[in-house]
Each structure stands twice: as C-alpha cells, then as structure tokens.
Design goal:
Length: about 160
C-alpha cells in the first residue's frame, strides 16, 4: 500500500504542477453578465481508471450579490473536489476547499497552478469524442450544467 500511495502522490504533484506564475492565487477581473456565466471550461483527456485529473474554467458572477462555487458533480469520477494549489517552500501543494468565492461583478479563473476542479478516480474515459458534462453548485445561484472542452496542456511536460 505504501507504493500505491506514493504513485498517487506523484500523480497529484504532476497534475497540480502548472505554470509557476499565479500559483496559489486566483485571477479575477471585472465582468458583466446575467447571473453566473461559465466560460472556457476545459480538461485534459483521461483514461478510465486514471487516479486523478483536473478541470479548469472561468466563472463570471454578473449579478449584484456575492456568491460562491460550493460543489461540482460529474458522473465519470468517484469524487470531485475544489482544490487550491499553493507553493510552499518550493513544493506545490493542493488543499481542498469547501467554497470558492465569486464576488459580484468579478470573474474568477480556475487555471493550472491555481484553483482547479479535481477529479478523483476517473471512471469514464474523457476524450474529445466523449466530453464530460459537469453540474456546478453555487451558494445562491441555481445549479448550472457545463460541457467541458478537451485540451492538452503542453506546459505539463518537463516538470516532473
Ligand atoms: Cu487538486
């Protein structure tokens, strides 16, 4: 079991490792919209049986009241968590968070090296032929369904 745990940790480190800039920070910018709009949702291809994968997106809260992303559900993984990456003493760490703040009039980006949606125990193959559909749960706004694009992040190579 020690060995299995090590493999799992190494995979987490690889996935959590993205661009160095912006680690631990959540980029935000002003935005307009009607309620919460999800744009640019993407994930990498993943095999059924893969230990972990991650998904990213930008959430614009165009409403007048602060909200928060409090959960993500996806039928093709054993568990889905919202994680925050941070750099501590040169080591990238990921911390599960129960809510990601979405201030009114701001867009918040989940991106490699920062906040991300962690897919734990992938059970359905994720590919361009079968793009995943997530349901996002918010503190106040109604649930939103989002279809996620498949991309390959080139910046993951060479970091291992
Ligand atoms: Cu993570």
């Amino acid at each position: 079991m020690r060995f299995r745990f090590w493999v799992f940790s190494a995979t987490l480190a690889l996935i959590g490792c993205g661009q160095d800039s912006g680690a631990g920070e959540t980029a935000s910018a002003e935005c307009d919209g009607d309620g919460i709009v999800v744009v640019d949702a993407w994930t990498e291809p993943a095999r059924a049986g893969q230990a972990v994968s991650a998904a990213y997106m930008t959430l614009c809260n165009g409403g007048d009241t602060d909200d928060a992303l409090v959960g993500v559900s996806f039928a093709g993984a054993d568990a889905v968590e919202i994680h925050l990456s941070s750099m501590e003493d040169g080591v990238m760490r990921m911390t599960p968070i129960s809510a990601l703040a979405l201030p009114a009039g701001q867009s918040v980006s989940l991106s490699p090296g920062g906040a991300h949606v962690m897919l734990i125990g992938v059970t359905d193959t994720i590919s361009a032929n079968s793009p995943p559909s997530f349901t996002l749960q918010f503190e106040t706004a109604p649930d939103a369904s989002v279809t996620v694009d498949i991309r390959t992040a080139k910046d993951h190579s060479g970091h291992h």
